[in-house]
Amino acid sequence: MMEILVNGTPHIVPTDTTVTQLLAILEIQGKRLAVEVNQELVPRSQFDSAMLNPHDTVEIVHAIGGG
What we know:
This protein is mostly beta strands. Helices cover 10% and strands 36% of the residues.
C-alpha cells in the first residue's frame, strides 16, 4: 500500500495503481475529467499505463458542460 494526495486529501491505494485504477477506486471512471500527476497532465490515452508512486500529488478536475 502507498499514500498519495488526491485533490489535497491523503488516500491509501495499492502499490502499482494506475490512473485508471485510481479513478475506479474513487468511483469516478467514465466521466469527463482531466488528471494531473505531480503537475503534469496525463493524456487520457495513457491512463491505463500511467503508474502512481508513493507521495504523488494527483489533481482531478471534472469537466462541466454549459452554455
